[in-house]
Design goal:
By secondary structure, the chain is α/β, with parallel strands linked by helices. It has twelve helices and 14 strands. Helix 8 packs across helix 12 and helix 9 packs across helix 10. The longest helix has 15 residues. The protein is globular and about 60 Å long. The chain starts with a strand and ends with a helix.
Length: 326
């Protein structure tokens, strides 16, 4: 069947299966990715079908996992590393930033490290501390890393394959509260380039730019605004490094207003860079300041109050109201 409705987690599983079948140099590594199939079952069944030498259960040692993947990539493999939860990536941050991101430049382009680091990220699942963070800006700030995030199953299927095929290291952020959301996946489609933003809803009055878990929230906001006669365009950025600024500019030149939305804290988040760049590029088109909606500049709260922390429909619509009031 070329087209099938899949949950995001299943689409990622199918994408990994396709990559393993297509290239014997692709390996999957991580904590509990084999026999358990990952805590979110994204790698379910892959060790059974491809063996323990290609789907590898590792010790609980993120720095060691990434360091080993770097060594394997130097020998011609294409490791796909799973970090079990977003907050667990920081023991590996040194390996990612000082080795993985810099080896290509350090070797004057002679060494490539085609490694994908998959990170379930974001909140909304009622998890404890270190299980609901959004650290994407920390990686987008580092030259030498590509940083992407799918918002739906179709993008999850294709973007993961594109990331694995890339000769550059890719940090692949998976919005964990969207793992169970279903969408049509066309396995015969020609996917958009990995770092190209996509308009997922056209509009004329204002642009909402988001990625990952917040695209669904922005689409809901556009639906709610339409009931009041407002036409909002929703742009799925898909990539945080590089950012498709040309796509954002094209949209803003038409709508003349921009609100950037992400779960991560607003302070020094991805939205800050987008706001600055679009203000420079579109100064004479903008009819209101670029506004940002995101998490608070505070540690992620206990699960019982996380809905107060996460940007939701009301906070997005409040920003829309403020922008249109100018």
């Amino acid at each position: 069947m070329a087209t099938e409705k899949l949950a995001l987690a299943r689409a990622l599983n199918e994408s990994l299966r396709t990559a393993l079948e297509s290239d014997p140099k692709v390996l999957i590594m991580g904590e509990d990715v084999g026999k358990l199939g990952g805590v979110f079952r994204v790698t379910d069944g892959l060790q059974k079908d491809f063996g323990e030498d290609r789907v590898i259960d590792t010790p609980l040692a993120e720095s060691g996992i990434v360091g080993t993947a770097i060594g394997l990539a130097l020998r011609g493999y294409r490791p796909v590393v799973e970090i079990q939860f977003d907050g667990f990536v920081f023991p590996a941050y040194d390996q990612i930033v000082t080795q993985l991101a810099k080896m290509h430049a350090r070797s004057l382009g002679t060494v490539k490290l085609p490694i994908v680091i998959r990170i379930p990220y974001g909140g909304g699942i009622g998890a404890v501390e270190h299980h609901s963070e959004s650290p994407e800006a920390l990686f987008a700030h580092v030259p030498g890393l590509k940083v992407v995030s799918p918002a739906n199953a179709a993008d999850g299927y294709w973007m993961l394959q594109q990331a694995i095929q890339s000769d550059d290291p890719v940090i692949f952020f998976e919005p964990k509260r969207r793992y169970w959301d279903k969408a049509e996946v066309d396995r015969g489609a020609i996917p958009a380039p990995l770092h190209r933003a996509q308009v997922v809803r056209e509009g004329t009055d204002l642009t909402l730019a988001a990625y990952g878990p917040m695209v669904k929230v922005c689409l809901a906001a556009a639906d709610a605004a339409a009931e009041e006669g407002r036409s909002l365009e929703v742009l799925d950025l898909r990539s945080m490094s590089p950012v498709d600024f040309d796509a954002v500019q094209r949209s803003v030149e038409c709508t003349r207003r921009l609100v950037v939305v992400h779960e991560a804290p607003v302070f020094l988040g991805t939205g800050a860079e987008i706001a600055a760049r679009i203000t420079e590029r579109c100064f004479y088109h903008l009819e209101a300041p670029v506004l940002r909606v995101g998490g608070y500049h505070a540690p992620y709260p206990p699960a019982r109050i996380e809905e107060e922390y996460l940007p939701g429909l009301d906070r997005v619509l409040d920003a829309v109201d403020r922008s249109l009031a100018f």
